[in-house]
């Protein structure tokens, strides 16, 4: 099949990183149509990510789009044009389920963004933990131009870019370039397209160098912080700190750190 006529699909691959664990890569593959997602693909995305949640060897997930033109160009307008008052809620709830699955995945989710991230694509990116974009990436929330408001995980945008910039995107349907998105805090890194995969690899290396259990506890705690008042967030952190010592990971890693420090001191004393 040609790029323009191929059916939308997801491609999941798993890469074993030795003792460091496993990294998943999930590709939204519909490049001839800017990787737009229809209802079937939305459901498949949710189901696939929910299935990954049970993999205790999983260390991270990289989510990206196929081709050179888009991360995810949005939800399929043909699907939405057929909605009515009764079918609209189930459709948008399905999209929320996919975004929420990314947020609930116990390990970090990295959005690798090249090309357009529009509407549902930007909501999905916002649901990821970290976002790396190429200089060719473009971001926008154009829903109001087709008669619908931006909803569900668009509610995450104020915590990323502030209320004023959120209003700017949602009320004007403006599309912004990657460097501006980085300045706003919508993406954490913006790099030349040729360096995108290397930047993702460096980020994965940094995550994999950390304690697996600590990373899982940290992601869970960050999400708790988003929902809790400050005093409760701090209390939740105290409990999570104690929970970390239910495994041997802190003792082993702190012991290795102290041992390496002692070895360095000993080496310096011999000079």
Overall description:
With 271 residues, the chain is an alpha/beta fold. It has two domains: 200 residues, 2-enoyl-CoA Hydratase, Chain A, domain 1 (Alpha-Beta Complex); 58 residues, no CATH class. Helix content is 49%, strand content 18%. The strands form two sheets. A six-stranded mixed sheet has the order 1-2-3-5-7-10, with helices on both faces. Strands 4-6-8-9 form a four-stranded mixed sheet.
Order of helices and strands: EEHEEHHEEHEEHHEHEHHHH
Distance between the termini: 67 Å
How large a portion of the residues is in β-strands, by DSSP E?
15-25%
What's the number of structural domains? Answer: 2
Task: Count every beta strand, where a strand is a DSSP E run of 2 or more residues.
Answer: 10
Specify the biggest β-sheet: 6 strands, mixed
CATH superfamily of the largest domain: 2-enoyl-CoA Hydratase, Chain A, domain 1
Q: What would CATH call the class of the largest domain? A: Alpha Beta
CATH architecture of the largest domain: Alpha-Beta Complex
Task: Tell me the overall shape.
Answer: globular
Structural class: alpha/beta
- List the total number of helices: 11
